[in-house]
Design a protein that fits this description.
The chain is of the alpha+beta class. It is 31% helix and 22% strand. The protein has one domain: Mediator complex, subunit Med6 (Nuclear Transport Factor 2, Chain: A, Roll), CATH 3.10.450.580.
């Protein structure tokens, strides 16, 4: 699979800025406006609950300094297995710091049947203790494309902005003296 680079799709605002010459080479697209897909990977491997974390780890959303990566590196060095044959989740619970976890189907809202096997949700969280983790961001993988989910603040600010625009464009706004 060498020589295959991930396919990236970026926001239209960023593409417009590049076309107009307004964006610097150093300027990066905000991840909230990034859609990532690796078609080469998808042609060779199925996207399932078992493979979605490996797929996500290839994306620009993945922090290579996270606990998941530390565990992956240790496994590559073939260090002894976790006590009691513990899996990735058990290792992550024993660590403090940034981690990524796949949200299982039982934690997701009910979905139409056509999305059940095509939608995966991943949480980035800060693990403080074995039973305490704060969600930092959520991502979803739909049909092989990875997106960052908007935060509640983003949604509320967007709604307020749209409401203010409607008020500014309202017919009575022309009646001001």
């Amino acid at each position: 699979m060498a020589g295959h680079e991930p396919q990236h799709s970026v926001s239209t605002d960023y593409v417009s800025a590049l076309a107009s010459g307004a964006a610097d080479e150093e300027e990066e697209t905000p991840l909230q406006h990034t859609v990532w897909c690796d078609t080469a990977w998808l042609t060779h491997f199925p996207l399932t609950e078992d493979t979605v974390m490996d797929y996500f780890a290839r994306s620009p959303f993945y922090d290579r300094q996270c606990n998941n990566e530390v565990i992956r590196m240790q496994r590559n060095l073939q260090l002894p297995a976790a006590p009691g044959g513990a899996g990735m989740d058990d290792w992550l619970r024993s660590m403090v710091g940034v981690e990524y976890v796949s949200v299982g189907p039982e934690e997701r809202p009910p979905l139409p049947v056509e999305y059940v096997h095509n939608l995966f949700v991943i949480r980035k969280q800060w693990r403080r203790a074995p039973d305490i983790a704060d969600v930092l961001a959520s991502y979803y993988v739909l049909n092989g494309s990875v997106y960052q989910a908007p935060t509640v603040v983003d949604v509320v600010l967007g709604a307020v902005e749209q409401s203010l625009q409607f008020l500014a464009d309202a017919p009575w706004s022309n009646l001001r003296s």
